[in-house]
Design brief:
By secondary structure, the protein is α+β, with helices and mostly antiparallel strands. The chain has seven helices and four strands.
Length: 197
């Protein structure tokens, strides 16, 4: 198994984190999130959108989009609930992560740390959106240990990836105590790895 990856990408980190939890060995192919000049050559035939991560299975089959990869890897494991409603709730949080959370928190982080001459107004707008996303998570996590049901799932993995690095995007998780406590619970899971691992 091969993962086209970036050590600073939260989307790639989610996949590495689940692979670590599942103790699945894989080869990493590191790509830059800034210099994308070789993307077409390296992953063009594997993901026409030229985004990472891309998972290449042993038979050469490829799968793109981080949350789709999470769903694929989690199938039949403890990280994906069996019940129809709970699975739908996992998807609910995965869609939220890609629509409300990642476009704001991840983009603010990228602009602050990796972009050349970012527009301050765009950063402010992304941070406002990020605060709304964190507030939505706080509403759920103020009274629950995890996002879906009573157990740790791919919903938590998906949202942890950029939430735990929200400080790099200008957010103070102390303002969201339920989210901060949840981050600690996620980091305490067996075979947890850091984004830099």
């Amino acid at each position: 198994m091969r993962l086209y990856d970036s050590s600073v990408s939260g989307n790639a980190y989610k996949v590495r984190l689940l692979l670590a939890h599942l103790d699945i060995p894989f080869e990493r192919i590191e790509l830059s999130v800034v210099d994308r000049s070789n993307r077409a050559d390296v992953i063009g035939g594997k993901n026409p959108a030229l985004r990472i991560p891309v998972l290449e299975l042993d038979d050469g089959t490829t799968l793109a989009e981080s949350n789709a990869i999470l769903m694929y890897l989690a199938e039949g494991t403890e990280y994906l609930p069996e019940g129809r409603l709970e699975r739908a709730r996992v998807l609910q949080w995965l869609f939220f992560e890609q629509y409300d959370h990642e476009p704001n928190i991840a983009v603010a982080r990228f602009l602050l740390h990796y972009a050349e001459a970012p527009d301050p107004e765009v950063i402010v707008a992304k941070q406002e959106g990020g605060r709304r996303a964190l507030a939505a998570m706080e509403t759920r996590l103020a009274g629950h240990n995890f996002l879906v049901g009573d157990g740790y799932s791919v919903a938590d993995i998906a949202l942890y990836a950029y939430t735990h690095a929200a400080g790099e995007a200008g957010f103070d998780l102390a303002e969201y105590p339920g989210v901060a406590a949840w981050c600690e619970r996620v980091a305490a899971q067996p075979r947890h790895i850091l984004i830099t691992d």
